[in-house]
Recover the amino acids of this structure.
């Protein structure tokens, strides 16, 4: 803002002193302090002051409203040069053309069509007469200011200090500036002590001949390999400095680095700068984009999971947890697990008046469109209105709870939703996914600006560039001497020449660059004490700041050609080389991570067999007793973080469910071709509900491949069953029987039976390589199949035949010792292997022989880490790997384990 001062600057009471620079456009500098009583700003700040003094104040239209209005005007221009671009990406094209239009207006274009104008400008001129609802831009607002002054309105006493002469300003501004009382800013002078390196740099940047100087404490040039180390150095140096730090400036263009420095300052007990970072990742900012993307079908489960797990989201915590668990079991909106969870909510006594169900219906029961198609403005407006009501209500609740930051973020989200709803509703036609996301991005304007720490008194002052250093400072920390800022012209040289011939002076970028560079030189010249220039890792698109490149030339003249390495200084404990940015260096002993422990001790009586057992429990007990202890006895389980199943697990679960529905239904078909056709039908019907990640557009090829292979596997299975005289008894059949007095848990994928009573158990697998399961049968290591076969033997008195159906490859393996009946169809392979009863006998004997640790009489071993010679002989059934692998190289069964860090198989970094 522009402040009214009294008895200052030009000596007239009530006079306003304004310091102006083109370099401050969009980035007004910090006030210099109350002693100077002067306000600084750029063109926008001056324009607002003029409008206020002349009574021309008006609501400033958001940019996205101007883009929408201009897009409507451009669309009415037939056969324009930009028509194809407008049809492809309306919002981006309108946004880019609006920037050009406003630039032309400031350069002196009156909006008319004239001979000699570039073709693009002539087509834009045709849109000018159609842009009836386009809010005024900077040029139109300046014209209103000029009209008011011409009518005799007077400005209050004032004085302007211009860092650039009026001729350097855009043409439309020059007439206004000439009606103000202005003087040019005095030339900058070096403020560092004469004869120092810093003074030599300042003199070189200001164009005077620098005096020769050797390295001294006035300038420290340091390179760090990490942002964190550089920030810790700055915090330590400022802590050693003591006293108020508001005469120290921190120049940092990178928001993330500035925020990291604030964290370091807070850890050091120093006042923080209040560095902000702008991000759309704030939870309050997520509801609107997620709610809009949930309007497309099939629903992306990852989006739905994000929505359910939003902090303080629309649903109650209990309801959200139930729905999240269902989604992670079967990732899809409308899956069987999801419907069961909804029914459970309906029947739950804890739900008051069905509130959660009403909320669920309001947010998720919408008429969806396929991905890639357009949404109706009514649908978008209704989603925006829902988000607006929710965010506004939550903002009021947060305000009542004293959470002012959250309330502000939620209020911003409510305004964004309202603006987007109005923006889309005003179009009157459907909006594509791409255009919707463009408009959403424009409305959100980069997200929410949040500060991890408050700006406190006595803290260093933060500026985003040297051009913002507008007053003398005792010290400057230049954190990051790279920059991503670029200035380029939107116009070709031919267009610039054509416009110039007609008196339209469009800046080719040179005027802007000159203004910024001049203010940067002035800013660096303001440093009186010492400068700490820190080179830190930067973004890939960053390049050395031009002023720093020039400064390095002056440094080289003084004999300073290479920076100090922060890491080397710390390693050698030569921190005095950083003076006056003094930092303490202390050694800290780093504890070595605990070594691998092959044996763990458990007190007698703590471990005892479980009341039930299963194939997986027996395998874990034999393969790694420590894993068994941690999971089954200690009940140390992974945290409740919601995770969607991985690709392999998702394919396996879904394919199992499809085959179970087709083969387990009453009157299921037996003809192989009909079975395959029914599998295809169920697959297509359920994939968007039960396995929605596979139904997304980007998975089209993978989905088609999986469907074809599953149909081929189903056809093979039906052929084998028909030729062998089998019929399906059931799918997902619960196991029966017991082992050592304990009931067997588990479910068999498919149980089939012949007319003579002979049974077979078929296990479905999705695998990257079917060779694994062929080897299991060939080597007599199919322990899971053996457990299922034993369970059937407990019920029937005879071991069944067994087989693996590899769904991803359309192959069925059966061991010669327990082979399925039937002719050998293509894909049906008999593997030379032992009878499954023999496999079971070896398996259960190995488990019993290796259970000495279970009673507490022996230490609990970590068998995958033991040398093969120290393992019981039967462990080879479930642990094929002969010797322990290098640290961190996890293979089965360690790759399936939740505890590799505890046992030492994986080291924490």
């Amino acid at each position: 803002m522009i402040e009214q001062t009294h008895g200052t600057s030009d000596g007239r009471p009530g006079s306003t002193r304004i310091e102006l620079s083109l370099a401050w456009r969009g980035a007004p500098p910090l006030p210099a302090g109350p002693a100077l009583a002067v306000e600084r700003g750029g063109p926008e700040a001056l324009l607002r002051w003029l409008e206020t003094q002349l009574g021309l104040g008006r609501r400033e239209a958001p940019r996205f409203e101007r883009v929408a209005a201009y897009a409507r005007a451009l669309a009415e221009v037939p056969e324009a040069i930009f028509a194809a671009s407008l049809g492809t990406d309306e919002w981006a094209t309108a946004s880019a053309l609006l920037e050009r239009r406003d630039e032309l207006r400031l350069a002196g274009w009156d909006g008319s069509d004239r001979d000699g104008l570039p073709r693009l400008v002539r087509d834009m001129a045709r849109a000018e007469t159609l842009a009836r609802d386009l809010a005024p831009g900077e040029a139109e607002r300046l014209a209103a200011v000029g009209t008011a002054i011409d009518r005799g309105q007077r400005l209050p006493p004032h004085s302007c200090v211009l860092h650039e002469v009026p001729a350097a300003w855009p043409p439309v501004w020059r007439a206004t500036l000439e009606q103000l009382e202005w003087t040019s800013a005095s030339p900058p002078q070096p403020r560092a002590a004469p004869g120092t390196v810093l003074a030599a740099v300042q003199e070189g940047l200001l164009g005077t001949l620098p005096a020769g100087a050797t390295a001294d404490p006035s300038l420290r040039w340091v390179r760090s390999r990490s942002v964190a180390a550089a920030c810790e150095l700055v915090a330590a140096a400022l802590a050693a400095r003591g006293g108020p730090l508001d005469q120290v400036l921190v120049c940092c263009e990178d928001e993330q680095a500035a925020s990291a420095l604030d964290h370091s300052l807070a850890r050091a007990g120093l006042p923080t700068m209040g560095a902000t970072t702008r991000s759309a990742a704030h939870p309050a900012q997520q509801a609107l984009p997620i709610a809009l993307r949930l309007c497309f079908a099939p629903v992306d489960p990852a989006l739905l999971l994000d929505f359910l797990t939003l902090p303080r989201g629309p649903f109650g915590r209990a309801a959200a947890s139930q729905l999240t668990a269902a989604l992670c079991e079967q990732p899809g909106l409308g899956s069987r697990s999801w419907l069961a969870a909804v029914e459970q909510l309906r029947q739950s006594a804890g739900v008051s008046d069905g509130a959660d169900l009403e909320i669920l219906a309001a947010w998720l029961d919408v008429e969806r469109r396929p991905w890639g198609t357009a949404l109706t403005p009514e649908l978008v407006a209704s989603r925006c209105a829902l988000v607006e009501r929710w965010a506004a209500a939550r903002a009021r609740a947060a305000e009542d709870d004293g959470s002012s930051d959250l309330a502000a973020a939620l209020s911003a989200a409510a305004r964004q939703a309202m603006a987007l709803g109005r923006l889309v509703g005003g179009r009157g036609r459907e909006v594509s996914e791409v255009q919707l996301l463009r408009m959403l991005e424009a409305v959100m304007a980069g997200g929410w600006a949040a500060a991890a720490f408050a700006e406190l008194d006595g803290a260093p002052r933060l500026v985003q560039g040297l051009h913002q250093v507008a007053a003398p400072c005792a010290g400057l920390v230049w954190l990051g001497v790279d920059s991503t800022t670029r200035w380029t012209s939107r116009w070709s040289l031919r267009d610039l020449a054509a416009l110039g011939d007609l008196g339209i002076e469009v800046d080719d970028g040179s005027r802007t660059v000159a203004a910024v560079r001049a203010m940067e030189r002035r800013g660096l010249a303001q440093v009186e004490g010492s400068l700490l220039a820190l080179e830190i890792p930067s973004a890939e698109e960053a390049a050395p700041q031009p002023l720093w490149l020039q400064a390095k030339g002056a440094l080289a003249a003084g004999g300073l050609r290479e920076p100090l390495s922060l890491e080397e200084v710390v390693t050698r404990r030569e921190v005095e080389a950083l003076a006056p940015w003094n930092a303490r260096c202390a050694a800290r002993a780093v504890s070595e991570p605990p070594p691998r422990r092959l044996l763990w001790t458990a007190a007698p009586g703590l471990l005892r067999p479980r009341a039930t057992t299963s194939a997986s429990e027996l395998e874990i007990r034999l393969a790694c007793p420590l894993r068994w202890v941690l999971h089954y006895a200690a009940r140390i389980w992974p945290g409740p973080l919601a995770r969607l199943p991985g690709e392999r697990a998702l394919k396996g679960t879904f394919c199992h469910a499809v085959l179970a529905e087709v083969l387990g239904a009453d009157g299921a078909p037996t003809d192989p071709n009909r079975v395959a056709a029914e599998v295809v039908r169920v697959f297509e019907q359920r994939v968007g509900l039960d396995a929605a990640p596979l139904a997304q557009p980007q998975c089209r090829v993978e989905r088609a491949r999986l469907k074809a292979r599953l149909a081929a596997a189903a056809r093979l299975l039906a052929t084998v069953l028909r030729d062998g005289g089998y019929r399906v008894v059931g799918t997902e059949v619960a196991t029966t029987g017991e082992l050592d007095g304990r009931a067997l848990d588990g479910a068999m994928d498919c149980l089939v039976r012949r007319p003579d009573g002979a049974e077979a158990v078929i296990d479905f697998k999705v695998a990257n390589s079917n060779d694994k399961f062929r080897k299991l049968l060939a080597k007599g290591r199919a322990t899971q199949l053996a457990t299922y076969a034993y369970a059937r033997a407990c019920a029937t008195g005879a071991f069944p035949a067994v087989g693996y159906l590899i769904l991803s490859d359309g192959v069925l393996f059966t061991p010669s010792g327990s082979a399925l009946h039937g002719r050998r169809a293509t894909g049906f392979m008999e593997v030379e292997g032992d009878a499954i009863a023999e496999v079971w006998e070896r398996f259960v004997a190995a488990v019993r022989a290796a259970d000495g640790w279970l009673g507490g009489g022996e230490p609990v071993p970590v068998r995958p880490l033991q040398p093969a010679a120290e393992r019981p002989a039967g462990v080879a059934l479930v642990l094929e790997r002969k010797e322990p692998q290098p640290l961190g190289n996890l293979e089965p069964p360690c790759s399936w384990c939740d505890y590799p860090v505890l046992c030492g198989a994986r080291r924490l970094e």
Observations:
- Residues 101 and 132 are 15 Å apart (CA to CA).
- The longest strand covers residues 527-535.
